[in-house]
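Incident review: delayed structure delivery

Summary: a single-chain prediction request sat in the queue longer than the usual turnaround. Root cause was a stuck worker, restarted by the on-call engineer. No data loss occurred. The affected request and its eventual output are reproduced below so the record is complete for anyone auditing the incident later.

Affected input:
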Amino acid sequence: MSELNRRQFIAAGAGALAAASVMRAVPAGAAPFGSADTTIPAPPNFPGGIPLYQQRYQNWSKEIILDAIWTCSPVTPDDVVRLANWAHANGYRIRPRGAMHGWTPLTIVNGENLDRTVLVDTMVHLNGISVNPGAATVSAGAGATIEAILAQLQNNGLGWVSVPAPGVLSVAGALAVDAHGAAVPAVGESITPGTTYGSMSNLITSLTAVVWNGSEYALRTFDRSEPEITPLLAHLGRTFLTSVTLQAGANTRMRCESFTDIGWRELFATGGAPGRTFESFLDRTGRVEAIWYPFTENPWLKVWSICPQKPPTSREVFGPYNYPFSDNLPEIASDLIGQLTVGNTSIAPAFGQVFYGTTVAGLAATASYDLWGWAKDLQFYIKPSTLLLTEGGGAVITSRANVAQVIHDFAVWFQSRVSYYQSIGQFPINGPVEIRCCGMDDPADVVVDSAGPPTISAMRPRPDHPEWDTAIWLNVLGVPGTPGMFAFYREMEQWMRGHYSGQWATFRPEWSKGWAFSTELPYKDADVIDTILPDTYREGVPADENWDTALSVYNTFDPHRIYSNTLIDQLLP
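Output delivered after worker restart:
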């Protein structure tokens, strides 16, 4: 692409990307097929009637950016069928594209040859939503956002007990990576029928995908009772869903209390310790998240609870995203980010202090320490304007009784390593630690006949350890481009995999985040990708429903690998 055309194309998106910025840019514009503004060769014999345009691609953390790639927006599921058969006949690959809210290069990979790749934007047209109140289900097109789905469910008195924090996610994108929330049953809590504390994938009662039928690609609907469905419930982009039907339960009112005055040593104490501990809040409400800014003492703790009646001290909210201070950075924070991205990592302690101070002041200024409203309005709190950071970590699968010990061990290890690097003048980490818990993909949560849990979900139960009923998410964030960050993530990943092992726990990746770290980049450790990670989904599960059988299903339904890229080719060969 010439420099002139490059500038024109970026300008069409309403603003150039500043190198020092990690805030989301205004979405890029598009140059339609046949326009003089297009700058790359058009795909040949493209199916008529399907809008095709050249567009920019940018993932959540801005670590994958492409100035121009052919993108289309099918209007109907039959259009997707035509696209699939066109791709097969012309040697192309098609990659479903949703909200682009992800880190993992499951859509496109930096540096791969994309001359014969077309992105398929599902969010323009394939976004219909239909609620069946009598059956307590919702059917949605692949591109419907989970926020829009929950709004329709709420209008019918229905909801989910646990959802991811960003409502902008397309439902198919969320399901592809077994998206989850931050909820386990509180002590004594009655489980709401129709909901699950595991991944969203465990809510699926049926799905429709475009699959190879032996002679061509065609639409096929899979019920939850069919054995072939289990690998499709969380598939990492190795198939193409056009619609899904999910179960739901009675909607609830919730309360969310924030605490910023609890020291990390008290909060992350071992099991049974006195005081305001993560374990005590989890037992009381089942819904807890800690955000621990770097080089600070007190995390920002959110505690959600089921609360039918508004407490006198709570402020009622009528929509989601109620922490505006976390979505719009003060000028000093933006200045510090600029310094970090040019290599002045020693200001990391100041960066953490600014964010902690902004949180404390923002909660007070917006009267947000104690909120009350409908469940979705308290659970959605990450917007596209939220600070864009990269992320490493994963899930520790263990029993509820081990939660405090798991978190304590990690907090002590993390503090020790950060302090060590600080002592030698290195600051590889400058973002917060995020700690959450959720349940597993319990087959008992599914209200229809089920062939089993999602095969490669991080929350898939281990039959050999039925006591492992909890997934503990331990993630560390950082500003993209920070020197030494990926080496730290590699060290952390290896420690977590080794420490959380044996008879008390196992470690699994969070598919949408960073994993398989080399010292320079994520997704580059061949031993993790080729052996260690697949073995995680062979251990303790039946041989007829494991990693290898999932690969067989993917290759049966897409033998020509039109739904793949170079990372998926390695991970799911």
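Verification: Residues 212 and 556 are 7 Å apart (CA to CA).
Action items: add queue-age alerting; document worker restart procedure.
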